[in-house]
């Protein structure tokens, strides 16, 4: 508008632009951090550390969903107060609407992340719940016969392997390859 000074398109309120950038940038960094935590979650051996990670994810995701709600309300309010004279040729109008839409959909996204973190917390942080050994849907099988009194007599005389250190007098079956 004839000057080198930049103005925020949200009613020339610099706080609206700065708040939106802050929430978006910190949310991106935190989302990257929690992605790495989820990737390494199965290698965290301490149940207490797992619980702390899940609680941190619940807390941060809930707070960030609220901050995006505030961002949506603040940006929509400032955009509604922006007059057409302040934006000749509708400069930045599409970007402003996109920022408002992004804030709205981010509320849903962060609320969904909060719900998923609460579900993970309700599952518990027991080590056996987060292993991938029994994820095929079938019940875990027991590799050895049961020794319980009610388990029945399923003893067998078959052995799994020959006893160690026994000499076998049979001729070796290995044949030397001919080249």
UniProtKB/TrEMBL annotation:
Keywords: Membrane, Transmembrane, Transmembrane helix. GO terms for cellular component: neuromuscular junction; synaptic vesicle membrane. It is found in: Membrane. It is a multi-pass membrane protein. Residues 144-169 have a biased composition (Polar residues). InterPro entries: Marvel, Synaptogyrin. Coiled coil: none annotated. The chain crosses the membrane at residues 19-37, 58-79, 99-118. Residues 138-169 are annotated as: Disordered. Residues 1-122 form the MARVEL domain. Its main location: membrane. Belongs to the synaptogyrin family. This is Synaptogyrin-3. It comes from Solea senegalensis. The lineage of its organism: Eukaryota, Metazoa, Chordata, Craniata, Vertebrata.
């Amino acid at each position: 508008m004839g000057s080198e000074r930049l103005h925020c398109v949200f009613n020339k309120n610099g706080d609206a632009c700065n708040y939106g950038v802050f929430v978006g940038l910190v949310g991106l960094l935190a989302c990257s951090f929690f992605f790495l935590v989820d990737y390494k979650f199965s290698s965290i051996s301490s149940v207490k550390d797992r619980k702390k990670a899940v609680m941190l994810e619940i807390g941060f995701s809930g707070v960030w969903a609220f901050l995006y709600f505030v961002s949506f309300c603040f940006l929509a309010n400032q955009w509604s107060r922006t007059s057409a004279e302040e934006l000749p040729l509708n400069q930045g109008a599409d970007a402003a609407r996109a920022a408002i839409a992004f804030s709205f959909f981010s509320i849903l996204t962060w609320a969904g992340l909060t719900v998923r973190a609460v579900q993970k917390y309700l599952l518990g942080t027991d080590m056996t719940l987060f292993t991938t050994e029994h994820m095929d849907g079938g019940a875990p099988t027991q590799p050895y016969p049961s020794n319980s009194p009610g388990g029945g007599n399923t003893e067998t005389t078959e052995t799994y392997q020959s006893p160690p250190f026994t000499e076998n007098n049979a001729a070796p079956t290995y044949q030397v390859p001919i080249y």
